[in-house]
Please model this.
Amino acid sequence: MNSTEVKERIFLSSPHMSEEGYELDYIKEAFDTNWIAPLGENVNGFEKELAEKVGSKAAAALSSGTAAIHLALKAAGVGEGDVVFCPTLTFSATANPIIYQNAIPVFIDSDYETWNMSPKALEEAFVKYPEVKAVIVVHLYGLSADMDKIMSVCRKHDVAVIEDAAESLGTYYKGKHTGTFGDYGIFSFNGNKIITTSGGGMLVSNNEERISKARFWATQSRDQARHYQHSELGFNYRMSNVVAGIGRGQLKVLDQRVEKKRYILEFYKRELGGLEGIEFMPSNEWDEPNYWLSSITLSGKVRPIDIFDALETENIESRPVWKPMHMQPFFEKYDFVGEGVSEKLFENGVCLPSDTKMTDEDLERVIEIIKGLWR
Ligand SMILES: Cc1ncc(COP(=O)(O)O)c(C=O)c1O
Model:
């Protein structure tokens, strides 16, 4: 290869359709029956199959994970002026729907043991805001939060719990699927997630009545009448039958994807674990992660920016750990409870390429570049 030739890009986590073509079979069925939209067998099937997979009684297929968080907040009765606890270390999509509901986010710090919501900071927040209406818990990068501790704090205060499991489909905490501990759980099928529908989300709950209400809100809150009648504010949040077909096909390969993600993390650990100052994302005996993104923190001379730049020069994608919400210009006016663990994780964190289509040669390419920074 001549030196000016651009090497094929290695992605952080890109869509990976099944080799068997399951997704196309379901899409074809939608075309053949002309159930392109709005709903249809794929939507019903995807809801049922996902609910079974995670062990939840009911599920509503929606246009995005963000829409699912929005409807979960609404179902939990969150409205104007209500306080909602939200992890600070997350993607903005966790926090935005709190604002859609005209509610007030209070951001909670992470701990080093899980990178997720600190139960200690959560307890402190309850002291400061005893009137809190709901708590959103996130399972970041496919690592589960410490749900026993978090649920015991939340149950003491009789508050609604929403789990943002957008990044943790396939992750189990003590044998139970993430997203099924609280009152509501949400999943995302955005393009970079462990399985994707190109875009989409799912709201799950054991409360079937609330899920049917969410479906109603998601279809413009159309009352049962021959004419168009609306007694409540509605949203256009349903998933289409074509998109749901992709989801049904992808669900069949979820376990394979988790297996490959685990292989990628183990590969990195074996090859990079000995480098001074590298620490891998936490691993806890009660956590069975989906290993969505292999992530590290750095405490030595090599800084995250060195890795981002070195990889990008070779056409390889990597990225920082989420920038905490309390540091974001839009959200910094809201309160934050904690000790700055999330800030440290942001400052020192790197998400390594974790694409399930990567070959061993691709992994070696990444590793050689990173090792080079230590030479
Ligand atoms: C933690 C987290 N929450 C929520 C979302 C929102 O999901 P969506 O993009 O499907 O709206 C995402 C991903 O995009 C996410 O990573």
